[in-house]
Amino acid sequence: MPDVTFIRNKIVTVEVHNEKTLLARGLLADDIYGLEIKVYIDTTGMTIHALEGQWNRWTTPECHRAIEELHRAVGACILDSDFSQKIKKTVGRLSCRHFANLLLECCDSAREAAELPIKPLEKTAAPASAESPAAHAAAPQPDRRLNPETVEASVASTPAPEHSRPPKTQNAPATLREAGGCILDLHLHSYPASPCSSASVDDLIREAKRIGLDGICLTDHHHRWDRDSLARLSKTHDFLVLGGNEVTTDQGDILVFGAEKDFPGIVTIQELREQAGPEAFLIAAHPFRGFLTFGIGRLGLTPEKAMQRTLFRYVDAVEVLNGKVTEKENAFSRKVADALHLPATGGSDAHEVSEVGLYATHFEAAIQNEAELLAALRSGRFQPVVFRVNPSPA
Amino acid sequence: MGHLLIFSRNRSTVVERISSECMKSSCVLRDTFIDALVEVTVELPDLEITQVNHQVRRWKHPVGPEAEEMLQHAIGVRIGPGMLKIIQGLGGNQQRFRELFFMLEECCQAIILSFTKEVLVQSPRPTDADASRAFYNEMVRENIRLYNRCAAFAPGSPLVEGIDIEGNGAENS
Fold it and tell me: Are B148 and A134 within 8 A, CB to CB?
C-alpha cells in the first residue's frame, strides 16, 4: 500500500461583491501551510483594487512579514499577458510564493467567472469567447482605475539586496599567474539581454578588468551576441570579450560556445547537440543545482547514479565551480565530472557586478579570440579556479 | 443575487511513495468548466519524471491527442530548481493546454514540498523562539537559494542574520 507523503487542497470561490466588483476568496491548506486570501477585482478594468491575506498555519516565526508585501499586487490588471510573471516576481519573491500561487489561482478563477453570463457583472473586459482562452491576451485593454505600472514600479523601487558585495582587490593566486596562459570567467549574465541580471555589460567588463581577469564570455540566456558587438566591446574597453550563451534544455542549462544558431526556446538536449553543430562546445552548467537541497543521504543520490544522467552523454565538459550553487553541489559536480573523465570549468554565473570572477577557468594557452577559445576548450588543457578569494570590504 | 457563488474551483494534489525508488504525484481539478487529472511518476533518487498521465472528463473545448503528446515532453525533466521554466517552455504557447501544464507544475511542486515537510518535522516548536530562529538560519545557510526568496528570509529578517551570502561560493571552494 503506497504511503501518502503530502496533500494540498485549494478552494477558490468567486462571487459578485457589488455591481463593479468581484470578490475571489482562496483557501490553501496542505501538510505545511494554511493560508487564506480575499481579492477584490474591479470589473471595469479587471484590476486588483484591494486584497487581504491571512495565515492560519505557517512555518517560520517571520512568515507574518509576508502579509504587508501582498499589497504590491494592488493595481495589477489580471488580463495583462505578463500578469502571472509580475505576481511571481513581486508577491512571490518579496512576500511569499504560496500566497502568490493562491493569488494567481483566485485571479484566474475571477477571469473565468467574468466569462459567465451573470447579469450584475459588467463584462467590459471579458474575452469574447470561452472557446479561446488566448483571446484574454488579445482583448483590447480597458481603462484602468489604478496605475498598471504599480507592480513593476514596486520592483524597481525595491532597494538592492543588502548582500551586494563591495568591490575587492584581491586577484587570482600568484601560482596561477606564474603558470602563464589566461584566466577567463566563462559564465556571466548582462542586462537587458538576460532580464534576470542587474548588471550592464559595460559595468561587467569594467569590473572584470579591474579585478585582473584576462577576459570574459557573455553567456546570456537564449541570447547570442553578434561578433561585431563583441569586437566593439573589446575595442572600447581594451579587454577580451567573447560570446556564448546559456540554453535551457529538458536536462537543465547548458553553456554553448561556437554555435552559429540561436536557440530562442527550450529544446531537448539531443536537439541542442544536433543543431548546435559539430564545432560547438557544450558545458553542463551547474548540473546539480538544487539536487542536494534535502541532503545526499535523504535521497540516496550517489555520483555513480548521477553520472548515468542522459545529460552527460551530450556535453563536452562540466561546470564544477559555479557561483550560484552550494559547496556541496559544486563538490558533487566535481566528483561526477571526474568519474566521467569529462573536463571541468568554472564560472561566476554573475548577475551582479560584484559577483564577477567569483570563479573562473584557467587555460594553459593564451586566448585572443573565439577560435582560440574553442581550440583551448577542445584541448582539455584548462581547470576551474577560485578567482575572487577571501572577499573583504573595500 | 445576494452572495451566491458564480464560480468555484477545487484543486487537490496528493503525493504517494510507491516504493523506495518511485513516487507518484496527482493533481485533480474540478471547477465550473473543467474536471481533469494529471499524474506524474518520478524516479528516485534524482527525481526524474518517468511517466505523465492525464484524464480529461470535462473541458471547455475538445482536448485531443495533442495534449497527451505535449505532456509527454516533460518525461526526462528533473524536479528541482529551474523545472518550472523548463515545463513552461516545453508547453510552448499552447494556451489551450495551459491548465494541464499548470496541473503538471502543481504535481512537481508537491513532490518538493513532500521533502520540505520531512525537513520541517525536525524544526523546534514555535514557542522556542531562539531555537526556531537558529534552525531556520542554519537551513538558509545549507540552502543558500532560500536567501531573499520570500519575506521571511529577506535581508533584515532575524532568520538570515549573520549570513554572508556573497562569501558562500568562495568560502566553500
Answer: no
Angstrom distance (rounded) from CA A346 to CA A358: 9
Residue B150 has pLDDT above 50, yes or no: yes
Cis peptide before A159 (omega within 30 of 0): no
Strand-by-strand arrangement of the A382-386 sheet: A240-243, A215-218, A182-188, A359-363, A382-386
Q: Please identify among residues 119-148 of chain B the ones whose CB lies closer than 8 Å to any CB of chain A.
A: 119-120, 123, 126, 129, 132-133, 136, 142-145, 147-148
pLDDT at A344 over 80: yes
Q: What are phi and psi of A335, to 5 degrees?
A: -60, -45
Q: Write out pLDDT tens, residues A80-134.
A: 888 988 998 899 999 999 999 999 999 999 998 887 654 444 444 433 333 333 3
Mean pLDDT of A223-242: 95
Which residue in A252, A300, A386 is closest to B173 by CB distance? Answer: A386
- Across the range B44-54, mean pLDDT stands at 92
Q: What angle do CA A308, A314, A320 make, to 5 degrees?
A: 70
In chain A, which among 162-191 make CB contacts under 8 A with chain B?
A: 162-165
Residue count of chain B, please give it: 173
pTM of this structure: 0.75
From the list B7, B12, B170, the residue facing A389 with the nearest CB is: B170
- β-strands A47-57, B22-31: how paired? unpaired
- What cell numbers appear for B124 in the block? 523546534
- Do A208 and A216 meet the contact criterion of CB atoms below 8 Å apart? yes
Residue A337 has pLDDT above 80, yes or no: yes
Edge to edge, what strands does the sheet with B5-19 contain? A47-57, A34-42, A21-30, A3-18, B5-19, B22-31, B35-43, B48-58
Specify the length of chain A in residues.
394
Tell me which chain B residues have a C-beta less than 8 angstroms from the C-beta of A32: 113, 116-117, 120
Cell of A182: 589566461
Q: Please indicate whether, in this complex, the C-beta atoms of B167 and A391 are within 8 angstroms of each other.
A: yes
Residue A290 and residue B145: Cβ atoms within 8 Å?
yes
Q: What is the pLDDT of residue A96?
A: 96
Q: Express each pLDDT in A159-184 by its tens digit.
A: 333 333 333 333 455 666 677 899 99
Closest to A47 measured CA to CA, from A55, A39, A56, A59? A39
**Residue B82: pLDDT band with limits 50, 70, 90:** confident
* Cα A103 from Cα A95, distance rounded (Å): 12
pLDDT digits (tens, 9 = 90+) for B102-140: 999 999 999 999 998 988 888 888 778 889 899 999 888
Which residues in chain B have their CB less than 8 angstroms from residue A266's CB? 85-86, 89-90
Per-residue model confidence (pLDDT) at position A132: 35
Q: Is pLDDT above 50 for B20?
A: yes
Residues in chain B within 8 Å Cβ distance of A309 = 46, 48, 78
